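Please go through this chain and its backbone structure tokens and walk me through the local backbone shapes. Keep your notes short.
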Amino acid sequence: MKKATRAWNAEFVRQLYGINVLTDKVKNFHLSRDNTLSRWNDDDVLIKHHVMSGRQVDSELNVVFQLVDIVNCLWYSMTPAGQRWK
């Protein structure tokens, strides 16, 4: 995939998990290269939130979505052949 294309910017780079304070359920979000958090909610609606430059992703999840105990997982991109990027 070429850099600086729309598809490259929209590619997921991290998956984040956190506990929702209001419901005590684990929620997961994906972070893309262009600093957009996204997830599908229970009603199959895509929720997106752009993280402005200079802001921490963890604090945005805490303030906007009331998540605590956030865990970051590296998202490995897969090539079309199923091999990992090097």
Q: What stands out?
A: The chain has a mean pLDDT of 81. The beta strands are 12-20, 26-32, 36-40, 46-50, 67-74. The helical segments are 6-9, 57-65. The first helix runs from residue 6 to 9.
